[in-house]
Specification:
- The chain is of the alpha/beta class.
- Helices cover 25% and strands 23% of the residues.
- It has a single domain, classed as 5-stranded Propeller (L-arginine/glycine Amidinotransferase, Chain A), CATH 3.75.10.
- The strands form 6 sheets. The protein has a 5-stranded mixed sheet with strand order 2-1-8-7-6, with helices on one face. A 4-stranded mixed sheet has the order 5-4-3-20. The protein has a 3-stranded mixed sheet with strand order 9-10-11, with helices on both faces.
- Helix 1 packs across helix 2.
Length: 353
Amino acid sequence: MLVLPNGLSTMSEVTPRALGYRWPAEWERHAASWVSWPHNPETWPGKFEVVPGCFAELVRAIARFEPVHILAGGADVMADAKKHVGDHPNVDLLDIETNDAWCRDHGPMFVVREWDAAIVDWEYNAWGGKYPPFGKDNAVPGQIAYLRALRRFAPGIVLEGGSVEGNGCGTILTTESCLLNPNRNLNITRPEAERYLANYLGATKVLWLQRGELAGDDTDGHIDQLARFVNPTTIVAAWEDDPADTNHEPLRANFEQHSQMTDQDGNEFTVVRLPLPKPKFHDGHRLPACYCNFYIANDGVIVPQFDDPADAGAIEILQELCPDREVVGVPSLDLVGGLGSFHCLTQQEPEVS
């Protein structure tokens, strides 16, 4: 279904793919980054007071490389964002309300063609209805489409941005445990899911990880905590050396599966291990601390740091893989207490060439 900026819709079979749109890879040039200002203390129980300052540090790191649009709807949220970010020349605040901060999942997914951009507005239900209410979050893409007068495509199924990873050439990487989970879309089949990814994100090949587990994760297996593309032919995969750690076996299985995968042209990938930090906990609960949750900005890569000896190694690995970008470490140990990090908190808007 195609939904126009004025809210009118047509039940035709017009899709982004049919109109020549594509979903660019994250490393392609951005017009801006979108984030949602954190304001829900239930997301960071017992430590919310430090979160706005940590989030502002992330915003300033991204704003070194590109404009940042912050959703900060409501007087109190707007005032808090202004207090922490200040009058930054590369940051603007928008009066769009949200329930929570995870813009990767509730924000717009942008597709582009030569002369314009459009928004794919998937449904959002807070990872299978785990954290109501989520109505304001679900309305975010439509509000941005209206604000920017962009064409909006509404597939009508639940899909979070963190559940899919693309190489910009037609290959999309995802997990069975999330995308086929009945708490998102009851009884959706793999061929049906692949058809949506083809029509709305331009997928020509979908690669399915069978193991989506990561200790502490509450998303049912978002791919952006497990494996990421850094260029069209290279995957970085989360890795745990310790055989006694609960993450060791599923991540080993994932690595072996990645090593057997091929891209849209039948070529094998280079697969690079990205070791996890030591286990991190809050109130006795394991946190999903993982360096795969980095964010690629224009000329930069923002890498979460967890006050861990492995922090420097993660930066070194990603710097070698992204030689034309400045790889920057930013503290994330407090932010990951909300069970996500930098990629979960951001959504890129690609440039129109």
